[in-house]
Amino acid sequence: MNWDSPILQVTGISKSFNNIPALNSIDLSLNPGEVRALIGQNGAGKSTLIKILNGAYTLDSGSILFDNKQVQYSSPYQAQLDGMSTIFQEVNLLGYRTVAENIMAGREIKRYGLIDWAACNKFADEAVKILGLDIDVTRTLDSFNVAIQQLIAIARSVSFNAKVLIMDEPTASLDEAEKKTLFKVVKDLKTQGVAILYVSHHLEELFEICDSVSVMRDGRMIETSLIKDLTKKDMVAKMLGKRVEDILSDENARPKVCANDEVILHVEKISGSGVLKEVTFELKKGEILGLAGLLGSGRSEVAKRIFGAEQDDSYQGKISINDITIGVNGPKIAIEKGIAFCSEDRKNEGIIPEMSVRENMSLVILDSLSKNGLIDKEKEMALVDSYIKKLGIKVSDMEQPISQLSGGNQQKVLLARWMANNPEVLILDEPTRGIDVGAKSEITDLILSLAEQGLSVLFISSEYEEISASCHKVLVMQEGISRDYLHYDEISENAILDELGKH
Amino acid sequence: MKLNKWMKKSQHPLLRTEAVWVALTLIIVFASLRYDDFLSPYNIESFFSYNSMFILISIGMCFVIMTGGIDLSVGGVVALSSVMVAYVSPYGIVTALIVGALTGLICGLINAVVIIRLRIAPFIATLAMMLASRGVALLVSGKQSVPISWEGSFPEYGMGLMFDLIPWPVVVCLVIAIMAWVLLEKMPFGRAVLAVGEDEEAAKLMGLKVNKTITLVYVISGVLAGLAGVTLAASFGAGQPAEGVGWELIAISAVVVGGTLLTGGLGSITASIAGVVLMGLIFNILNFENGYGSFTISTYWQSVIRGLFLLLVLIIQAEVLKRLRNKKTAQ
Asked: Which intervals hold domain ABC transporter (chain A) (predicted)?
């Protein structure tokens, strides 16, 4: 690593939107072959910084020195052409097109004015081979899993002779095995001298691949240091601007066991939808039950089955709530019986992006808000207002479009949507995906307090740490089959993996 | 083996073009067995002369739909173009083709500007153009059909045959079809069309020129509708301001029957053309039945039958897709 001649040197960057400062005199320098973590809460300014670097935004003041020349790109594509590529959280490639078409898009190799597919495929094949991927580049992109798609996006960037790679939450939709593949590629790129700016909310993974870490808070660069000099708690404290001791005492205050014995939800031997084979468990009043397991183990399918979100003739087994059996007649019945469900796909199955915060929140309870078929808007507004205050949702006002909110605040609106219906069972599928540390702990706190008030929660997450922080009990799932329970004091990543290894 | 891998281009499983080809084959076999004159040169010639207009607008519609848009203005543009062309018919076919194409180009360009600059949804923007172009056609012609000049090369375009074999409009249509196929399958523009249709944001991040691509597809659609107007005026001997009503729907249904996704991102020129032929053949067959005198079906009923048939093909397509998905999840 050459620490003396940085490939990227950012000095004094500031940026305001409508006179509200988003970035305040940011300095950052990145060396060839360095993997730098960039962390901070949502709203800390990470995204703004990235967008200024790759040309999506223009800067108000300051300078960017890249590869010894002053740059200011007009678009992310311009930046990519010049060797500064951004890998976005969501794969920004085309699922219908082949791998080769995706890698070559916008710069197809031509012969006599027509695309020379043979040459394009060959180029693309070499580009993926550099990352150690052995795939058929003439297959369509959507025939590969998200991790491979993510790697293909990296292959495209690297094939533009990338010198700096900005990765924005690249592991957000990857499972453990897929993450390993990605990390290997990151390490390879590092040895090839590519500098990487790695943005992530998953602090534990930073220790695995990053050399150094920069912390942002409220639009300022708080600190840059070597990662070996920090603990995870240090990072959280710096991001939140709190002391480490305060964070620890917060965590110890959490309740550990569910005191109640009354069973609310019985699930007996359910199967179907191609994934579920045999799942049996029960959920007590006020209990938070974690569902752990690898991607594809059937966790989400269990949730959708209970909620009736997917109807399939092949479904079998029995589900009862308060000893009343519920069928598979769609979510309406489930909602009436007091079940609530937040999907893992917040964007497509949760929020209605065109609607305001108010409209999003009241969707489930419109019937009870209506009189003679007309919505009682005053009642609606009072209700929405009370939840905004209760959950501390950050909005300019309740008519703000939900799409303008951060992930954490969107999730709170969705939680409010269900809480307004007074459910007995709340099913949460990856409720904190893509949400920053601060909002994450707020949502966890909220779930804990709801459980204390008697709400039963089924909590699905691929983050073991999160499960152990909030669940009373964990049910381990494997290949559509429910295995054993782990009780509070047994929950750990190793215990879950051990359980999976037993079968 | 290796070479084979490079040359192969996989077709996306969501693009189902089989249904239209199978239906087309079956219907041709059925008709050629049942009607003696079905494969006669006269029937084939007149079938393609007439349907070359629908092939032209369907090719344009296919490009537009592949970007995720829609062009409802084609019927009106055909009518307007036929009127304009009738006025310049004394100057010969070359002038007529240029004027027809220009008329369509201007309409397409206006569509594009309204859609891109004013951010108005294609459905609404082209609906406005559909009304406007029809209105201009009626205004200019005084609600009357405009007779063409029977002197010179223009009428020859509607009546004559190249090499005493192929009607001229069919020749033009064939050339356009080949160009369209090359454009979609072999040129970067085709990739851009599909990319914009699947995910505009991703296309932008790949450095593709989104606005230019969208502009071009509406221009293509307009120009092809303009050329269809030339055919209309030449073969009917007059500019027809009231003709072309509902043609946009015929084009859309042909494109959809061909398997092109209405949401954009996947499509086929050849299958869209097959779709036109398929829809046209149903009319053709009903005409034969009427001619046989076995029963008489009014044009209204023909429309109903065609609608039912369209529904049938779409149901089959949806069924195939569903089976495919189930197979995939079962694996």
From this structure: 8-243, 259-500
